[in-house]
């Protein structure tokens, strides 16, 4: 949705359109509940406490979709493929990651267009993170 403000055309970001920070917090929190119970994914996470990892992914997704740049202020350029290099991201890990994301996206109950946009990105990003045949 576009709105005219002080003579400039301001396009609402996807971040704003889907409800801002609370929406991304719900998404990633639900996702990490899945990860915490996943026998393949859970051992991949180096820290005992998944809280910091949850925070990083939340801030990354908020930034990607047009929200605050807090992720890069703390972590620098995302370089996600490089950051995943220490982990064995094969087809099975990809499938598990996306399965938990799918559950989390479903629970947001977004409008169909937003859901498709979000899901399309996650599918594409997950594919590009595979680093082990
Ligand atoms: C395809 C399967 C994937 C697996 C198995 C996986 C696994 C992991 C693991 C084990 C970590 C380290 C946890 C941490 O300390 O933060 C991590 C970090 C991270 N992942 Fe993934 N990931 C996958 C896909 C993705 C995708 C598709 C995205 C983006 C849409 C993503 C975004 C991130 C971010 C932002 C971090 C934190 C980076 C940092 O600042 O250090 N991951 N991932």
Summarize it:
With 133 residues, this protein is mainly alpha-helical. The chain is 60% helix and 6% strand.
Question: Can you give a write-up of this model?
Answer:
The structure is a single chain. By secondary structure, the chain is mainly alpha-helical. Helices cover 60% and strands 6% of the residues. The chain has a two-stranded antiparallel sheet. It is built from seven helices and two strands, in the order ββααααααα. The protein is globular, with a radius of gyration of 16 Å. Helix 2 (21-36) crosses helix 3 and helix 6 (91-108) runs antiparallel to helix 7 (112-128). It has helices at residues 14-17, 21-36, 51-64, 70-75, 80-84, 91-108, 112-128, and strands at 2-5, 8-11. It has a single domain (2-129), classed as Globin-like (Orthogonal Bundle), CATH 1.10.490. The chain starts with a strand and ends in a 5-residue tail after the last helix. A hairpin with a 2-residue loop joins strand 1 and strand 2 (8-11). The structure holds protoporphyrin IX containing FE. Residues 41, 44-47, 53, 56-57, 60, 75, 80, 83-84, 87, 89, 93-94, 97, 125-126, 129 line the site of protoporphyrin IX containing FE (HEM).
């Amino acid at each position: 949705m576009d709105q005219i403000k002080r003579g400039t055309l301001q396009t609402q970001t996807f971040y704003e359109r889907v409800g801002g920070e609370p929406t991304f917090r719900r998404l990633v929190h639900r996702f990490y509940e899945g990860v915490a119970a996943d026998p393949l994914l859970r051992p991949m996470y180096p820290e005992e406490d998944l809280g910091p990892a949850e925070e990083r992914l939340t801030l990354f997704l908020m930034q990607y979709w047009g929200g605050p740049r807090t992720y890069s202020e703390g972590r620098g350029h995302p370089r996600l493929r490089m950051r995943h290099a220490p982990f064995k991201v094969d087809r099975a890990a990809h499938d598990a990651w996306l399965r938990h994301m799918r559950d989390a996206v479903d629970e947001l109950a977004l409008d169909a267009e937003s859901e498709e946009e979000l899901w399309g990105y996650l599918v594409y990003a997950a594919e590009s993170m595979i680093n082990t045949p």
